[in-house]
Amino acid sequence: MMKPTIKTAFAAVLTAAAVSAAALAPTTAHAAAAGPKPEVQDWTFKGLFGTFDRASVQRGYQVYKEVCAACHSLNLIKFRNLADIGYSEAQVKALAAEYEIEDGPNDDGEMFMRKRTPSDPMPSPFPNAKAAAAANGGKAPPDLSLITKARAQGGDSVIKVSMKHPGGFTIGADYIYALLTGYEEAPDGFEMPPGGSYNKYFPGHVIAMAPPLVEEGVEFSDGTKATVSQMAHDVTMFLAWTAEPELEARKRLGVKVMLFLLALTGMLYALKRKIWSDIH
């Protein structure tokens, strides 16, 4: 059950998002203002042997479900995919059954509503893109399925960037975490349009989305304290997983391929020595 603070946050987000895009257009000076580079975070999925922290990903799903899902869809993920982050078959069925979906036609040629099953997609907060845009000042909130890839430096994937030196690259997960924790009071002299919020990491610093996370906004089932930074970390971990759920399998395959190539190189070198031994 969601706390009143979450409902309040929902209302704030929807109200801010409904403001006209023109009203929120930053001035030339604001648009030119580039936010600071997001700090590089210590994600568990980084590196050759990196993996997703299952507990964190599950907490992140809870944050998405109770906060982000009010405005943002997750169209590329089906409930059955949640088994990959540690949910049992029974848990996946129960999570899916919390929502309904239109199905049919039945024998009478009529559409009907039924509970969702693991093979069904996550529910969308709006029936279509035009409805989403109409409810949000003319611009639909982005689908979050691939958001960490979309916000990665140079469009790199999580797995590609995670192989690079961690000190010199900003990946999409770093930006999403920074954005969620980057809300501040606008500095003196900064012109803030009605309905906007100041975020030091957002280009121009004026963002239509009100701060979505509040302290203790959710109650994690594992007892983890729901600070803003913790919720931001967990939901970012979850969104990194939705962007590349196959990341761990790809890394395992990569390790096997490299080991095979090393063994093959050794065998070929030994074969070369054997073939040319009479000449030397």
Explain this structure.
With about 280 residues, the protein is mainly alpha-helical. The protein folds into two domains: about 5-75 and about 120-245, Orthogonal Bundle (Cytochrome Bc1 Complex, Chain D, domain 2); about 245-280. Helix content is about 40%, strand content about 5%. It contains eleven helices and four strands. It has a two-stranded antiparallel ribbon. Strands 3-4 form a two-stranded antiparallel ribbon. A hairpin with a 7-residue loop joins β3 and β4 (about 205). The longest helix has 29 residues, at about 245-275. The protein is globular, with a radius of gyration of 23 Å. The relative contact order is 0.20.
Secondary structure: elements and pairs:
Elements: H1 4-17, H2 21-24, H3 28-32, H4 54-66, H5 89-96, E1 100-103, E2 112-115, H6 129-134, H7 147-150, H8 158-162, H9 172-181, E3 197-198, E4 206-207, H10 228-243, H11 247-275
Antiparallel strand pairs: 1-2, 3-4
Helix pairs in contact: 4-10, 9-10
- Strand percentage, roughly? under 5%
How much helical structure, as a percent, in the residues?
40-55%
Q: What is the CATH homologous superfamily assignment of the largest domain?
A: Cytochrome c-like domain
The CATH topology of the largest domain:
Cytochrome Bc1 Complex, Chain D, domain 2
Rounded to an integer in angstroms, the radius of gyration calculated over CA atoms is 23 Å
Low-confidence stretches: 1-33, 161-168
Which strand order spans the largest sheet, edge to edge or round the barrel?
1-2
Helix and strand element order:
HHHHHEEHHHHEEHH
Mean pLDDT: 83
Overall shape: globular
Number of domains: 2
Helix tally equals 11
Biggest sheet details: 2 strands, antiparallel
Q: Strand pairing plus helix content: what structural class?
A: mainly alpha
Secondary structure: number of strands: 4
